[in-house]
Design a protein that fits this description.
The chain is of the alpha+beta class. It has 2 domains: 214 residues, Distorted Sandwich (Beta-galactosidase, Chain A, domain 5); 422 residues, Alpha/alpha barrel (Glycosyltransferase), CATH 1.50.10. Helix content is 26%, strand content 22%. It contains 13 helices and 27 strands. Helix 2 packs antiparallel against helix 3 and helix 6 runs antiparallel to helix 7. The protein is globular.
Length: 650
């Protein structure tokens, strides 16, 4: 049984909020909509697809409302309220004017909980035909509500159907019931911390209605997923949190800005090429969250953006193969590996060989740029940054996503990704029958694998150091993240991998870390000041030994997304028990919505990173990357590992 709450625009637009039956949900979905008393519109809108108390928090900005606007002389204007009355039934009826057109908007506001209750909104029109639009003024400081549409066009408009995802409140499916074409925009301001989702309605006449439905979306458990009945209910509401198409913000064409519909940190933050593969892997594992909506075109759009618009040129204007990491920062080695891995995710999921043929030359240019960075020809790709102590100074950045950490020269994190990227590109070449090219990239990957572990292994600790600097020093911070990634990708032999994991667990116990609901720290010993971004940045210690800020940001702070590799290493080696203990603790925290606290963009205020006791130590507040730890519920299953890791096992 299904109950439907209608926002009904009589003869014009029908907008409905639907609540699925209780048997479909662990907790019945709950939605709330409240009509404004002072102006025509919906001043409170919220939901919780798992039936929790998040519905009591408004997703809209203070002193704003979901409202109708009409187009007059090229300008969008708010409809004007002429009268408001409350009917005996509790419904609110507005008499409105849109220029010379009169409207009646009738709203029956109830809370929808489970299978009980309706909310109905009726709008009827009399007079001249008028263009209308519906504006949702979402508040990213609460949670960065964004849209995952069926189509995102090059002109910045998206098309319905679409998923409206309010992270940790849950996803809703927005459709036009009769298949009519509805387009929308997503625009925001990083400075003001606002985001507006706008639906432009076609010219409306009484005989040409539009019916919009907004329905709680319960992501289906993937077929064959191990322990799905146990783990998926704790995962489904947060799964799409990892996919945040940016709103258009900033001045177009400037580095500090974002075009609409490119996957990024959050709706009003930066797209970053170094993170693209995080999102592509997430989409690959669940590519179609709702009928008619695939995530893979959004991945493709983001890949094309980085390959076509953010590749650097040399002094003669020729493309180099180097991709910007974010803004205009270069010299990131994962900025090149990431689009290649993402391209494999896209093609493997969609079988879109036409796109691959069109993009292959550009992908090869990127891969060859990496190959040329092996300056000493030992198989290991060297960063431009030396990695020597005291050499990472503002405004420069390191060679990796870990941009405040002085990783450089022979860097373990980025070379693990380069290894995977070359394997992925070799596999893509084979899809097109390009045997020689497949062999070339396979050989590059083989050579890198042959030297990876022996380059970074520290016999004094029994695990891999994070990087080896140009002066020959191993920079070893007892990293579960780095070692986990190497083990996960097969760059460490299984026997040594098991020893490394045991040693890291002992080190963790000796360090006194027990808050597994937060995840696992990326390093278990403090980062030296001379190995941090100098002279001032978030988390930088004053003491050379790093102890005064240990646990803040990239000096041992915890960010949930990078816990994935440590967990995956255990699953790859067939030792799931300890990883499952961490994963289940993290899932409990995820169900409480405690891996984000809305968009903050302020140092040490965001819980996208935390200290070892759970205090904020990040700045974004919401970082889409954090939620990729949820991939662990797939990677604990050998069937899904074999799909994602296929190029690594050939």
């Amino acid at each position: 049984m299904k109950k439907t709450a209608l926002i009904f625009l009589a003869g014009m637009v029908i907008f409905s909020i639907s609540s699925a039956s209780q048997q479909d949900y662990k907790g019945s979905p709950v939605l709330k909509s409240i009509a404004d008393e002072a102006a025509p519109g919906i001043s409170f809108l919220s939901w919780d697809t798992e039936g929790g108390d998040r519905v009591d928090t408004n997703l809209l900005r203070p002193d704003s409302a979901v409202k109708i606007q009409y187009l007059s002389d090229g300008t969008w204007r708010d409809v004007q309220m002429k009268k408001r009355r409350v009917e005996d039934s509790g419904a609110v009826a507005y008499a409105l004017e849109a220029g010379k057109t009169r409207l009646t908007w009738r709203i029956e506001p109830y809370e929808i909980r489970g299978v009980r209750g309706d909310v109905k909104f009726e709008l009827s029109s009399h007079g001249e035909t008028v263009l209308l639009r519906l504006v949702f003024p979402f508040d990213p400081k609460v949670t960065p509500t964004t849209v995952l549409p069926s189509i995102w066009q090059d002109n910045g408009f998206f098309r319905l159907p679409a998923i409206i995802n309010a992270p940790d409140f849950g996803p809703m499916l927005l459709k036009e019931a009769h298949g009519r074409d509805i387009r929308g925009t997503l625009e925001g301001s990083r400075k003001d911390k606002v985001a507006d989702l706008t639906l432009e309605l076609s010219t409306l006449t009484p005989d040409s209605p539009i019916t919009l439905t907004l329905t709680p979306l319960l992501l289906p458990a993937p077929s064959g997923l191990r322990d799905a009945a146990d783990l998926w209910p704790a995962t489904r509401r947060g799964w799409l949190n990892a996919l945040q198409p940016c709103a258009r913000w900033g001045e177009p064409g400037k580095p500090f800005s974002a075009p609409a519909g490119i996957l990024g940190n959050n709706i009003i933050s930066d797209p970053a090429s170094v993170s693209l593969w995080f999102y592509a892997d997430q989409a690959f594992l669940l590519p179609e969250p709702a009928a008619g909506i695939s995530l893979m075109p959004l991945v493709r759009r983001s890949i094309d953006y980085w390959l076509d618009q953010r590749m650097k040129r040399d002094d003669k204007g020729r493309l180099t193969g180097e991709v910007s990491g974010y803004w205009d920062y270069g010299n990131f080695l994962d900025a090149e590996a990431s689009p290649i891995i993402s391209a494999w995710d896209y093609v493997e999921s969609t079988r879109d060989l036409d796109w691959l043929k069109a993009r292959l030359e550009r992908l090869e240019l990127v891969a060859d740029f990496l190959a040329l960075r092996d300056v000493d020809h030992d198989g290991f790709v060297e960063a431009v940054q030396s990695g020597n102590r005291g050499t990472l100074v503002q405004p420069n950045r390191s060679c990796a996503w870990w941009d405040a950490l002085n990783c450089g020269h022979k860097d373990g994190y980025t070379n693990a990704l380069i290894y995977r990227a070359w394997r992925c590109l070799g596999d893509l070449e084979s899809k097109l029958g390009r045997t020689a090219q497949n062999a070339a990239y396979t050989r590059l990957a083989d050579n890198l694998k042959s030297v990876y572990a022996k380059t970074l292994y520290n016999p004094q600790t029994g695990w891999l150091a994070w990087w080896k600097s140009a002066d020959g020093e191993l920079h070893d911070y007892a990293s579960p993240t780095l070692n986990g990634l190497a083990i996960e990708y097969g760059l460490v032999e299984p026997a040594l991998g098991r020893q490394i994991l045991d040693r890291l667990w002992k080190k963790m116990a000796d360090a006194g870390f027990t808050r597994f609901d937060l995840g696992v720290p990326p390093m278990l010993v403090p980062v030296h000041r001379s190995d941090y971004l100098l002279p001032v940045t978030i988390g930088i210690p004053k003491r050379e030994d790093g102890t005064d800020t240990f646990g803040q940001y990239m000096n041992g702070g915890i960010t949930a997304g990078h816990v994935l590799h440590f967990l995956a290493a255990h699953y790859v080696l067939g030792e799931p028990e300890r990883a499952d203990k961490v994963l289940r603790a993290m899932l409990e925290r995820q169900m409480r919505g405690e891996f984000q606290n809305g968009v903050r963009d302020a140092d040490l205020q965001g819980i996208d990173w935390t200290t070892w006791d759970g205090k904020p130590s990040g700045y974004e507040g919401y970082l889409a990357d954090s939620f990729r730890f949820l991939q662990a519920i797939f990677l604990r299953d050998p069937t899904f590992r074999s799909l994602l890791y296929r190029p690594l096992t050939r």
